[in-house]
Design goal:
The protein has a seven-stranded parallel beta sheet, with helices on both faces. 44% of the residues lie in helices and 14% in strands. β1, α1 and β2 form a beta-alpha-beta unit.
Length: 330
């Protein structure tokens, strides 16, 4: 892996874990942070570069002398104004990749399994599966991000690797830990069709392992990789384990047809309201948790040598202290 290393989205859940791993291994790291988030940077020996991926000049400045880029900066939520996703996730990626090409740096960026769109409802999804229709602004932006990445790579010869994480969990995960616990405490039905199918979970440490492997393997350039824990943990088991360890009510099931009817009613009405909050149920989330989709990681295993470094039972034990603190400060 060529040093120095630039990490965009450095103060986010994934960025923070990645930087801690990189510094432990002795890499020279530059963290690209929003000025308003500079106070969140808590790493030793890491150079800070302030700026915004939507600003080409600050991206260009942060990119000087860089050998490897982990591009994580994006809007990471499933609801919001389309122009926000366009500016940050899509055009921000354009700025980062174009600057990286001028430095002859290698780029590993985090895409998402949401690029598969509504194919998530019907298939086992290998990396070469044609995409379906996006189910929300997040998935739409991720599809455009990947398309843009391959276009720029083709035009410039930039080495680009796309990592498509499944549902990333672990201490500090707002989406798949904090939000789930909040719903459990409210007693909200959360298990579509009982949740008896693989949840496509991905522990943060396993994602970081995959990112490092993708950055270190020259043959990965131009490739996309599904990444998951690949342990077959169902939503029912995962949500139940979170309920037990957070002293919350057990998760309740909801028939798929009821969930679909609710989302068809709630999301369109929600968009008419003068609120910026996300609806309690939307097509993007329904698409992610409502179907028994499988994401083979055969390519990552064979080409990157990826193996999960953390197993589910061990990771859940490590999560207990975090959840105990959440109980004290709900």
């Amino acid at each position: 892996m060529k040093n120095p290393i630039l990490v965009t989205g450095a103060t986010g859940f994934i960025g923070n874990a990645l930087i801690h791993r990189l510094t432990r291994e002795g890499h020279r790291v530059r963290a690209f942070v929003l000025p308003a988030e500079k106070h969140l940077a808590a790493w030793h020996g890491v150079e800070l570069a302030e700026g915004d991926v939507t600003d080409p000049q600050s991206v260009e400045s942060a990119m000087q002398g860089i050998g490897t880029v982990f591009h994580l900066a994006a809007v990471v939520q499933d609801f919001g104004p389309r122009d926000w996703f366009e500016a940050v996730t899509v055009q921000g990626t354009r700025n980062v990749l174009q600057a990286a090409a001028r430095q002859n740096a290698r780029v590993v960026f985090t895409s998402s399994i949401t690029v598969y769109g509504d194919k998530l409802q019907t298939e086992t999804l290998a990396e070469d599966t044609p995409w379906g229709n996006a189910c929300g602004v997040y998935g739409e932006a991720k599809q455009r991000q990947e398309q843009l990445a391959w276009e720029i790579a083709s035009e410039t010869g930039l080495e680009v690797v796309s990592v498509r994480p499944c549902n990333v969990w672990g201490p500090g995960s707002k989406l798949w830990v904090d939000s789930v616990v909040a719903e459990l405490r409210r007693g909200t039905p959360s298990l579509i069709d009982g949740g008896t199918f693989d949840g496509g979970l991905l522990h943060i440490d396993n994602l970081v392992e995959a990112l490092l492997l993708a950055a270190s393997n020259p043959k990965a350039a131009g490739r996309a990789y599904n990444i998951s824990d690949d342990q077959g943990i169902t939503w029912a088991r995962y949500f139940s384990d979170l309920a037990t360890r957070s002293n919350s009510p057990r998760p309740r099931p909801i028939p798929r047809w009821v969930a679909r009817l609710l989302v068809m009613i709630i999301e369109p009405l929600w968009k008419l309201l003068p609120t910026k909050t996300r609806p309690p149920l939307n097509f993007e989330s329904y698409n992610l948790v409502g179907f028994p989709t499988r994401f083979p990681i055969t390519r990552a295993r064979e080409e990157l040598g990826y193996r999960p470094v953390v197993q589910y039972d061990e990771a859940m034990k490590q999560l207990e202290a975090y959840l105990e603190q959440k109980i004290k400060t709900p």
